[in-house]
User: Fold this.
Amino acid sequence: MSDGESPPDELTPAQGRLSEHLELLRANPPTPAGELMPRIIRTVRWQRAIRPPLVLVGVVASAISEGLSLLLNVPTGRS
Assistant:
C-alpha cells in the first residue's frame, strides 16, 4: 500500500494483543449464569409492556409544550 499502511496480513501490536485475548476466550468461553436468560426475558417483558404508555406520555407532553410555546409567543403587533 502506498499510503504507509501495513499490508492486511500483518497485525499491529494492538491487534496482536487483541488477537491473543480473543484466542484465550475462544479456547475457554465464559459460561452464563443459570438465572441469566430468565432475568433477561423478564426484563424484556416488562419493558415491552411499559413502552407504549411512556411513548404516549412523551407525545402528550410534547404537544402541551408546543401549545404553550405557541400561546406564550404571541406576536405583539399585526402587520
